[in-house]
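sanity check both lines:
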Amino acid sequence: MYNLPQKLLAEFVGTFALIFISAGSICSDQYVHASTTGVISLFSIAAAYGLAAAVMVSAISHVSGGHLNPAVTIGFWVTKKISTLDALSYWAAQLAGATLAAYLLTVVIPESAWRATGLGSPDLATDFTRFHGILLEAIITFFLVFVFFATASDPRGAINKIAGFAVGLTVTMNVLVAYPLTGAAMNPARAFGPALVARHWMNQGVYWVGPLIGGVIAGWLYNSFLLKES
């Protein structure tokens, strides 16, 4: 059994990697295309975010569960699989990892690239309302947390040993659908770290309310109806 400090270290490192790669891919893509069209490649961003999630969940799931996301943690908290103290500690570690990752991105990536993208901070499309943003973020986070419970939490899951792969694919498909509209954060830490460092707080509430609602519903639904024997 791992103790709480070990679990928090795993969550810190895992979330650091997740945000460094996902936000960094947006900044790097902007840098590559700045001299041409300036268009960000949707598939490259989706692949980077999905691969980072798959690798890090696989790497640390045996230590901390590999949450890497306050929305996943709240799903475990609402189903009483994690204590309030542990949940708050996980949140702190996740937000700290995201913040350090965002700060280091400003050190290693040219300022012209990261400022142009708000350090990869998610934001809403110009014709997309906050209500629709919250709804879309809630839906895609629901998918993520539902898959997380089905593969990483359910001992009867057919692929619980390769949960990271399933989680990574879920992240990728969510980004492909939602990135042009909301930035497809599905993770409050993903929004918080870059926003704090870049001071880009536009619509920040969307990326807390939506994912946390989605995480609570997914965790409760799976735990209440699918974890029980028929």
